[in-house]
Amino acid sequence: MKRLLILLLTSILLLAACSSKNNEEGQENTDEMTAWAWDPKFNIAALKLAEEMYDGEEFKLNIIENAQTDIVQKLNTGLSSGTMKGMPNIVMIEDYRAQSFLQAYPDAFYELTDYFQVDDFAKYKIASTSFEGKQYGLPFDTGVAGLYIRTDYLEEAGYQLDDVTNIDWDQLIEVGKVLKEKTGKDLITLDPNDLGTIRMMIQTAGSWYLKEDGVTPDLEGNEALKEAFRIYKSLLDAKIVKVTSDWSQMVGALNSGEVAAQTLGNWITPSIKAEQSQAGNWAVVPLPKLSVAGAVNASNLGGSSLYVLNIPGKEKAAEFLGKTFGSNIDFYQKLVTEVGALGTYIPAIDSEAYKSKDAFFGDQQVIEDFSKWMDEIIAVNYGMHTYAIEDIIVAEMQNYLNGKDIDEVMKSAQKQAEAQLK
């Protein structure tokens, strides 16, 4: 009897140890999934909608809100430690940062190639979500950009929408000068510490901070980047820019009517529409392009995708993403109408929700227009070092604005980048 009791206690301890081990390495209870994401009104709302519409094996999705910077820090800390303890089943990662994780921790992510049709998504999203020919991210929202502009201010200055449609940045600056003279309003806002505008500019020309290998710095001799610097300085020299220091100041300038326009990704739409008193006075036209060979009136700013960690429950998590974000047209229609989020799933573009008119934008079919421009974005390899290089460029931009020769600026930035990224 005593021996039987000892065996029973030993079995219980072994089971407890196994359970503890499973909890350390990931969520063993595959009836419950955990997801990390930021922005409750956009990304988190999209995940909640996906859970509601999921037609598959029932499970509960625990969505944990984290700031994007916190997700980056937690992933780096956890994955670099060599353990999957505390990792979520699903994680959202910004496209600019994705390659830094996929290349540094390739075994930490579960391959999703077989869970959706890659060709069903915008091509420019695939470069950042894949690695060595395998698909690890399920492309989500598009950062397709446009020129948001006040039609009432345009008319006051003697312009029509056609005057700012499919133009280059120099043409926009000339419009901005007249707008400032006639209305007293600045053209756009710029934050000296956030070079998102530079990113949008250079991608219109199919260029990036790195060469096509996504590793080698491409700053010195980069004609698109050089032209973007010139345009940036021209905007400031023309005194048609309201300088801001953060997101709230930028949105405040739009909602208060202090600026006539803004060049941003489509995710700014809800913030603009929040000021209902301006309904009917806004329109969106294609983004201005750089005046370099091959440039187009289309670009991207931001955007993120969804990844599955290589922990217990990975198959179920991948199936969930595949059946919702990866293939469900009804999901994408509700995503547009209920959340206001525009995905990169091409088959959804022909659905009725994408063709709807938006009264705030003068009955413009905004979603359909953004979808068309999305298809024109030139794919570039963001690589692993977008923000590391941008830290260098922010400082060199100030040197350029203070009178340093542009070629010397680019040469200095190149040397710093090469030294830092060795």
Can you describe what's shown?
The protein is an alpha/beta fold and 422 residues long. It has 2 domains: 162 residues, Periplasmic binding protein-like II (D-Maltodextrin-Binding Protein, domain 2), CATH 3.40.190; 199 residues, D-Maltodextrin-Binding Protein, domain 2, CATH 3.40.190. 44% of the residues lie in helices and 12% in strands. The strands form 4 sheets. Strands 2-1-3-12-6 form a 5-stranded mixed beta sheet, sandwiched between helices. Strands 10-7-11 form a 3-stranded antiparallel beta sheet, sandwiched between helices. The termini are far apart. The relative contact order is 0.17. About 6% of the residues have low confidence.
Strand content: 5-15%
Q: What's the shape?
A: globular
Count of helical regions: 16
What is the H/E order? Answer: HEHEHEHHEEEEHHEHHEHEHEEHHHHH
CATH superfamily of the largest domain: Periplasmic binding protein-like II
Unreliable residue runs: 4-28
Tell me about the biggest sheet?
5 strands, mixed
CATH architecture of the largest domain: 3-Layer(aba) Sandwich
Class from helix and strand fractions: alpha/beta
CATH class of the largest domain: Alpha Beta
In total, the number of domains comes to 2
> How far apart are the termini?
67 Å
**Any idea of the CATH topology of the largest domain?**
D-Maltodextrin-Binding Protein, domain 2
How much helical structure, as a percent, in the residues?
A: 40-55%
Instruction: Walk across the major sheet and give the strand order.
Output: 2-1-3-12-6
Radius of gyration: 24 Å
Number of separate strands: 12
Write down the overall mean pLDDT. Answer: 91
